[in-house]
């Protein structure tokens, strides 16, 4: 089963509530939320993704399934408004951790979560340090294409793969990187933080026909030939299918993500996130050499 933890501020629009907290403190925030328990929150940046993920459970095809867990810094009292909103929208989210201001990432292992999506960059970094997949989901444009299919795009190095190749590029330049990748083409890359997420998605995909699948994945990488070969052979070695692979050779990723119609895009470099955000929901993965 694919298990994803989502923070309350990612799932719902808590902008006004958070402004009260920042300007007036915790007590004022608690009173504000409890006074508005029956006022349903508007969907947040991760809401469409959560809805599509949970909809996969409605298909009777025998796949492992998806669970979304609420991982929130709220208390149980202030979290009641959030669960009232979950019930209002018909989201089948049954498990939650309300940690009263402490980082909820520490419960990922107990819940068996593969991924944390949060608006709190500190929580995301702490989860990555413990070898969990995690990303800071950022406000941006939703994809203008929506066929009902769940479309997820990933960067390669330091996201799906380890950062050993990216480290050579950053420290020694493009020529050294290209030479290294050509020489190492037959040696699979190590797994990055999102390898388990991709594996879990692949298991769900495998329950459906390739030509009529509710999930479509894409690798969108700045790599180009000859550095593409090692990527292809690594995925083959892992037994994971990527539906689309775009080797951009340094081109800006935004327009390609728009064309793909991603519901979410994961990348370790802020420059690529900035390119993507005008077109699709994006999530920064502060992993690898570029985030040290």
User: CATH superfamily assignment of the largest domain?
Assistant: HAD superfamily/HAD-like
The unreliable regions are: none
Just give the CATH class of the largest domain. Answer: Alpha Beta
Strand content: 15-25%
CATH topology title of the largest domain: Rossmann fold
What is the gist of this entry?
The chain has 292 residues and is an alpha/beta fold. Helix content is 39%, strand content 16%.
SSE topology sketch:
Blueprint: E1 2-6, H1 8-11, H2 15-24, H3 26-35, H4 47-55, E2 66-72, H5 76-89, E3 96-98, H6 108-111, E4 115-118, H7 121-129, E5 133-138, E6 150-154, H8 164-172, H9 174-183, H10 195-205, E7 215-221, H11 228-238, E8 244-247, H12 254-260, E9 264-267, H13 270-276, E10 282-284
Overview of this structure, please?
- The chain is α/β, with parallel strands linked by helices and 292 residues long.
- The longest helix is centred in the N-terminal third of the chain and has 14 residues, at 76-89.
- It has helices at 8-11, 15-24, 26-35, 47-55, 76-89, 108-111, 121-129, 164-172, 174-183, 195-205, 228-238, 254-260, 270-276; strands at residues 2-6, 66-72, 96-98, 115-118, 133-138, 150-154, 215-221, 244-247, 264-267, 282-284.
- It folds into two domains: 2-135, Rossmann fold, CATH 3.40.50; 150-291, Rossmann fold (3-Layer(aba) Sandwich).
- The protein contains 13 helices and ten strands.
